[in-house]
Amino acid sequence: MACILLATSGMSLVAAVVLGVQALSPPSTPHLRPEIMLRPLVEQAAQRSPSIRDLIDRIEASDLIVYVRLRQFAQSNLDGRVALLSRMPAGQRYLMIELACARSDVVTMATLGHELYHAMEIAAEPWIVDASGLTSYYTRHGQRTGDIQGNVTFETRGAEQAGVQVRRELFTTPARQTWTLK
Ligand SMILES: [Zn+2]
After folding, report:
1. Is residue 93 part of a domain?
2. Fewer CB within 10 Å: N-end or C-end of the chain?
3. Does residue 34 contact residue 62 with C-beta atoms inside 8 Å?
């Protein structure tokens, strides 16, 4: 699973899109905000994976607002990524998790778990409020995996293990069948 953390450019565009997503949020304003077409998959992931449930609970208890959306990536080997939005009101941090289109449900849910783990890494460090904070944190706690079009990318063992664990939980708790026995 190739999975990266965007630390620099391109965030203004994401911020603009997020304003549109935010307007659609339900009145209860949960901290985890998947786009509408992803909500059934996120609900299924939370039902089948205790790890995902735990990560979602921790995000709801954190200061972070985490958007999740599908995205067609230019790199075909990329399953997902997470970025901190650059223009944030004081005292509020926003993350955007992007999951690759056209993956199996299991891959998408495992990638969601992986990226939610990164969200928790960032939630635990309130001083991370911009790209330089992200770069500083992940330089110390992650492995630098590349520099794609000016975006420095990182990975952590913890997030990789979270993805593997979610996948394991999904295989032990299959999706509910839609047919009935007669
Ligand atoms: Zn990752």
Report:
1. yes
2. C
3. no
